[in-house]
């Protein structure tokens, strides 16, 4: 039965993953291709298949170890494809390298048909030491600050995120029919195909969020996206990440970690806020199940919707930002202006990114010019 393939193709490997995992896997394999082309003069798939064909499967660990070390240093003469653009290859953070290696282990097994032994992997593949830092949650005042300067459409998204603890990718894939506004509290049913765990779960919104969310839902049809600004799920998440960075900067929440230069507060801090506030009332296990962590999800789901709604109501006060609820139905002209302003701002952010890439390319070009001049001098002496 030679017409049935033995292993998974790259396309199938990527398609089987959820949005975020697929994005990480695509970037990983792009960089593995670049590494293999530089080291061996072949693309990554060919290298893996050559190892399989040779029968010396121990070479799998050698290649992954070399890839890990390669990721740990700058390669400014190389360009890495990141979405639709390319950037100079700079060293990756330990946590990023670890996530890339998780992808590579799966890819060697699924694409190459090469079984990776965890004990051998730990012994043969050296990974940089990770500094684990818990995601910092927002405070109530920080979320108020961001919501007060955000557009009405972004504000209802951020309020929903801080109540539900949803991942951004889950929120941007919601459609109107996923939300039941006929019950109190309003119920959001997250479809399994949109979650990291591939399991459905039910979450809720507070009374201060429900009014704005209802206004939003009244403007769209049952199959319409509630929050997405792009039909491509990956681009929709990217847009929200970019817009959040704009509002974070505007709010002055730019503090960074000293060990990796990353912002202490990012769009996932809404999720951390929900987990922290709910844990104060019901404990860590329920809180982590509520926001969709796999280890606690089964126990969370088994409680049933009636019990879950009751437990949410018990911690609703902890999630509230405002002492009073103001229902503001913005004039359509105001909403159109806000939408256009955000669209313009998103364009400016993308322009800034392109200018940064151009600047990096200029640096790379200058370095190459210096290398050429040094080589010419060396040849002139000879």
What's the helix and strand layout?
Elements: H1 10-15, H2 19-40, H3 44-54, H4 59-71, E1 75-82, E2 85-89, H5 94-110, H6 118-124, H7 140-149, H8 152-164, H9 168-171, E3 179-180, E4 187-190, E5 201-204, H10 207-217, H11 233-251, H12 269-282, H13 284-290, H14 294-302, H15 305-319, H16 332-381
Antiparallel strand pairs: 1-2, 3-4, 4-5
Helix pairs in contact: 2-5, 4-5, 7-8, 7-11, 8-10, 8-12, 11-16, 12-13, 12-15, 13-14
Strand content: 5-15%
Q: Sum up the overall morphology in one term.
A: globular
User: What's the end-to-end separation, in Å?
Assistant: 63 Å
By DSSP (H or I, 4+ residues per run), the number of helices equals 16
The CATH superfamily of the largest domain bears the name Intergrase catalytic core
Structural class: mainly alpha
Average pLDDT: 86
Q: Largest sheet, described in full?
A: 3 strands, antiparallel
CA-based gyration radius: 24 Å
State the domain count: 2
- What's the CATH architecture name of the largest domain? Orthogonal Bundle
Number of strands: 5
Strand order of the largest sheet: 3-4-5
- What is the helix content? 55-70%
CATH fold descriptor of the largest domain: hpI Integrase, Chain A
The CATH class name of the largest domain reads: Mainly Alpha
Quick tags:
single chain, 16 helices, 2 domains, 382 residues, hpI Integrase, Chain A, three-stranded antiparallel beta sheet, mainly alpha, globular, two-stranded antiparallel ribbon
């Amino acid at each position: 039965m030679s017409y049935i393939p033995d292993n998974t193709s790259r396309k199938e490997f990527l398609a089987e993953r959820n949005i975020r995992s697929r994005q990480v896997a695509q970037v990983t394999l792009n960089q593995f291709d670049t590494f293999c082309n530089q080291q061996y003069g072949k693309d990554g798939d060919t290298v893996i298949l050559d190892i399989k064909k040779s029968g010396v499967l121990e070479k799998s660990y050698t290649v992954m170890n070399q890839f890990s070390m390669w990721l740990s240093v700058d390669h400014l003469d190389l360009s890495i494809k990141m979405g639709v653009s390319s950037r100079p290859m700079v060293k990756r953070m330990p946590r990023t390298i670890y996530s890339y290696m998780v992808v590579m282990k799966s890819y060697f097994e699924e694409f190459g048909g090469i079984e990776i032994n965890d004990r051998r992997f730990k012994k043969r593949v050296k990974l940089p030491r990770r500094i684990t830092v818990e995601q910092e949650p927002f405070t109530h005042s920080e979320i108020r600050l961001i919501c007060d300067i955000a557009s009405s459409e972004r504000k209802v998204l951020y309020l929903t995120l801080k109540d539900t603890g949803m991942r951004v990718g889950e929120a941007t894939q919601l459609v109107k029919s996923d939300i039941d506004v006929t019950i109190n509290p309003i119920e959001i049913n997250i479809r399994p195909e949109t979650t990291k765990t591939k399991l459905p779960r039910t979450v809720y919104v507070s009374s201060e969020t429900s009014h704005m969310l209802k206004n939003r839902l009244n403007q769209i049809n049952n199959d319409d996206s509630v929050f997405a600004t792009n039909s491509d799920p990956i681009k929709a998440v990217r847009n929200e990440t970019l817009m959040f960075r704009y509002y974070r900067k505007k709010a002055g929440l730019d503090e960074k970690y000293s060990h990796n230069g990353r912002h202490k507060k990012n769009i996932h801090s809404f999720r951390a806020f929900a987990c922290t506030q709910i844990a104060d009332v019901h404990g860590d296990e329920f809180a982590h199940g509520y926001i969709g962590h796999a280890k606690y999800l089964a126990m969370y789901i088994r409680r049933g919707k009636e019990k879950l709604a009751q437990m949410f109501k018990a911690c609703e006060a902890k999630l509230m930002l405002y002492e009073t609820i103001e229902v503001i139905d913005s004039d359509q002209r105001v909403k159109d202006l806000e939408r256009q302003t955000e669209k313009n701002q998103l364009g400016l952010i993308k322009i800034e990114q392109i200018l940064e890439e151009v600047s990096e390319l200029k640096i790379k070009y200058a370095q190459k010019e210096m290398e050429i001049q040094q080589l010419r001098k060396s040849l002139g002496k000879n």
